[in-house]
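Bug report (template v2)

What were you trying to do?
Predict the complex of my protein with zinc ion.

What happened?
Run completed; filing so the output is reviewed.

Input:
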Amino acid sequence: MKNSRDLKDLVPIVAAKCAAFVSACKEQGVDVLITSTLRDNESQAALYAQGRTTIGINPRLAKPLGDVVTNANAGDSFHNYGCAFDFVPLKNGKAMWDDTKTFTKCGVIAESLGLEWAGRWKTFKELAHCQYTGGLTLQDLKNGKQVK
Ligand SMILES: [Zn+2]
């Protein structure tokens, strides 16, 4: 099972955009940590199971398995093709998962670099997620096309 947070596991153009993103955030006073880059299908399937068949986020009496963390099953995430990364802003070295304002600031920076920021998504908003597809669809990637 591979779930990398190494920029080297991203396709080259996405790795470059990710590095530029980290630098640009720093210039604007925000340290960000990259928490995920490339995931293999096995790792994606394990994430997809969270909140469905295994325990996900915030398990509670009314929802013992908690909330789901992704709508993408194995092969259906841009992470599976090295085209996406997740980040979290840090404050004094601590991950600020609930800091929507800082996530948004970073999301705007990501967009200025040509990345797609999932904080804008309507169906499964994900403040931590950025991707670059070069106009390719998941089906293109499944067919072996490369993001350039
Ligand atoms: Zn993501």
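What did the reviewer find?
Strands lie at 31-36, 84-91, 94-95, 116-117, 129-131. The chain has four helices and five strands.
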